[in-house]
Design brief:
7-stranded mixed β-sheet; two-stranded antiparallel sheet
C-alpha cells in the first residue's frame, strides 16, 4: 500500500508529463487517421451521463464544465444532444489542441476549450450549473507529490466553480461510493448513485466503476 492513507500507489498516471506525452501521441494519431482516440470509461459512460441529465430535465442552455476534458468527445456528444453552453478544461495543452481539432472536424465551434488546471482555476471559471469528471479525480489521486492535499484542493476548486446547488457528476474506477462521499461530503449532498455494469467473482458481486450525482450544498 506504500503507506498512503488512501491505499493508492503513486503512478505516472497522476502526472502532467504523462498526459502531455499521451495527448501528443493521440494528436499525431488524429492528424494521421482522423481517429479521436480513447473514450474514457467507454461510450456507455457518456450515454449514462447524458441520460441522467435528460431524466433530470437539465435545461439545454445550462452552463456545463467538463473537468479534464482530454479529447473532448464527451462535450461533442453533449453538443450533439443539444446543450449549447459547454466548456472543457485540461491542464495539458496537447489535450486542448486535440479537442479543438476534433470540434472543428465535428463542426462544433461553440464548444469552449481552454488550458486550465482545476487545482488552480482562473477567476473566470465560475457559475457552472453542472460539472462533470470522468477520471480526473482518479488521476489526481495517483499523483506522486502530496496527492491527499491535491484532492482537498480539487474539492475546494469544484465548490468554487459551481453555482449554489450546482450539480457534480463523477465517474471513478478507483473510489467506492462510500469513499467518494467521504471525500466530497463536507460541501456536497448525494442525489443518486447511477447504475453501472455489475461483475460477479468468487460468489461476490461488485462494480468496476462508481458514478455519483452530487449537489453543492449552498
Amino acid at each position: 500500500m506504500g503507506g498512503r492513507e488512501d491505499g493508492f500507489e503513486p503512478s505516472a498516471l497522476g502526472t502532467k508529463e504523462h498526459w502531455d506525452a499521451a495527448y501528443e501521441h493521440e494528436l499525431q494519431h488524429f492528424d494521421d487517421s482522423g481517429d479521436a482516440g480513447e473514450i474514457w470509461f467507454g461510450e456507455e459512460s457518456m450515454s449514462r451521463l447524458i441520460g441522467w441529465l435528460e431524466k433530470q430535465k437539465i435545461p439545454l442552455d445550462s452552463c456545463i464544465l467538463d473537468i479534464g476534458t482530454g479529447n473532448g468527445v464527451l462535450l461533442a456528444e453533449l453538443a450533439k444532444f443539444g446543450y449549447t453552453d459547454l466548456v472543457g478544461i485540461d491542464y495539458s495543452a496537447s489535450a486542448i489542441r486535440l479537442s479543438k481539432k476534433i470540434m472543428e472536424k465535428e463542426g462544433l465551434p461553440q464548444v469552449k476549450l481552454q488550458v486550465e488546471d482545476i487545482l488552480n482555476p482562473s477567476d473566470e471559471l465560475s457559475g457552472f450549473h453542472v460539472c462533470i469528471d470522468k477520471g480526473t479525480f482518479d488521476a489526481i489521486s495517483l499523483n506522486p507529490e502530496n496527492a491527499a492535499e491535491k484532492r482537498k484542493h480539487y474539492v475546494k476548486s469544484l465548490h468554487r466553480v459551481l453555482r449554489p446547488k450546482g450539480l457534480f457528476l463523477i465517474t471513478s474506477c478507483n473510489w467506492t461510493r462510500e469513499e467518494l462521499l467521504n471525500e466530497f461530503g463536507e460541501g456536497f449532498l448525494l442525489l443518486e448513485e447511477l447504475p453501472t455494469s455489475v461483475f460477479c467473482f468468487g460468489g461476490k458481486t461488485g462494480n468496476n466503476v462508481t458514478v455519483l450525482a452530487l449537489q453543492k450544498k449552498i
